[in-house]
Amino acid sequence: MMNENDDEQHEKANKNAQKKCAKYWPDDSMDCGDMHILLIHSEHYKDFVVRTILMRKIDEIRTHRVILYQYTGWPDQTVPLNVNSLIKFMKKVRDDHPVMGGPMVVHCSAGAGRSGTYIAIDALCQQAAEDKRVDVFRFVNNARHQRVHLVQTLEQYAFIYEALVEALQFEDTTVPLEKIGNYLKELNHINTVDRRSLILKQYNVSTFRGVHESSILSYFMFINCSSSRACYIPDVN
């Protein structure tokens, strides 16, 4: 499928602790049937890896460039261990992908739970930017008519809301190392209107984050799960 398009392509894979599918990218180079695949560059981050590979048929000169984004912090049938990490991953993919670039393929082991959750968050963030509103239920319901079992668990469905809160209510606070000094000065600057510094505002947002989340997750009740991770269940009372 990736070999059918001449344009640059981006592909995202979610790592699964249980082996369900074969590793299809090389550490250096590999032949797969009549295809030769060559790794030309890789960038390693805390929770994901970005690889650039070249593909060509063994009897042809023409090559296809594929950029593979592999998110490694998302176990099967659960949710990412760090919501902020996933949002940064999504931003990286979107920033790298040209507006008129080639098709983007999203997959996990089964192409249902994690893939559906990722697609929903990404699409709803775009919907929020364009329409100033989101409709999680309608999007997931419509998506399931195209592929069954998209967003497999209640925890994944609730995580869509949690990720939207992170992406839409909290600004990106990533700072390049060479700018950290100037950013610290900005954090400590006192606003003349409310007499508060940005660092105090950030701290308050982090401290009272549960209040912000409850405004969107109004029909979810927070509980402790046996998996030692907090999750949400519908409040049926």
UniProtKB/TrEMBL annotation:
<keyword id="KW-0675">Receptor</keyword>
<dbReference type="InterPro" id="IPR000387">
    <property type="entry name" value="Tyr_Pase_dom"/>
</dbReference>
<keyword id="KW-0378">Hydrolase</keyword>
<dbReference type="InterPro" id="IPR029021">
    <property type="entry name" value="Prot-tyrosine_phosphatase-like"/>
</dbReference>
<dbReference type="InterPro" id="IPR003595">
    <property type="entry name" value="Tyr_Pase_cat"/>
</dbReference>
<dbReference type="GO" id="GO:0048666">
    <property type="term" value="P:neuron development"/>
</dbReference>
<protein>
    <recommendedName>
        <fullName>protein-tyrosine-phosphatase</fullName>
        <ecNumber>3.1.3.48</ecNumber>
    </recommendedName>
</protein>
<dbReference type="Pfam" id="PF00102">
    <property type="entry name" value="Y_phosphatase"/>
</dbReference>
<comment type="similarity">
    <text>Belongs to the protein-tyrosine phosphatase family.</text>
</comment>
<dbReference type="InterPro" id="IPR016130">
    <property type="entry name" value="Tyr_Pase_AS"/>
</dbReference>
<keyword id="KW-0904">Protein phosphatase</keyword>
<feature type="domain" description="Tyrosine specific protein phosphatases">
    <location>
        <begin position="84"/>
        <end position="158"/>
    </location>
</feature>
<dbReference type="InterPro" id="IPR050348">
    <property type="entry name" value="Protein-Tyr_Phosphatase"/>
</dbReference>
<feature type="domain" description="Tyrosine-protein phosphatase">
    <location>
        <begin position="1"/>
        <end position="167"/>
    </location>
</feature>
<dbReference type="GO" id="GO:0004725">
    <property type="term" value="F:protein tyrosine phosphatase activity"/>
</dbReference>
<dbReference type="InterPro" id="IPR000242">
    <property type="entry name" value="PTP_cat"/>
</dbReference>
